[in-house]
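Please annotate the following for my students:
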Amino acid sequence: MSPADLDDQQPSAPARKAEPERRSTASTDSRSSWSYRNCAQARAAGAAPVYAGEPGYGPHLDRDGDGIGCEPYRGR
């Protein structure tokens, strides 16, 4: 076999798979630099509730300071 034949038999590099979007992983190390303007915007994007450390979270979305923004209202 010639070197050209060997090259034809070598497998090509596998295609890189796109990494899935990580929405539910809360991480304090990777704080995002942007946040939703308000809960209506977060809900319209389908991101509510937004957890601390997730992209889109901001302290102004978290009224009770528990790390969960735009929580659904549960009533009393």
Remarks:
- The beta strands are 50-51, 68-69.
- The mean pLDDT is 75.
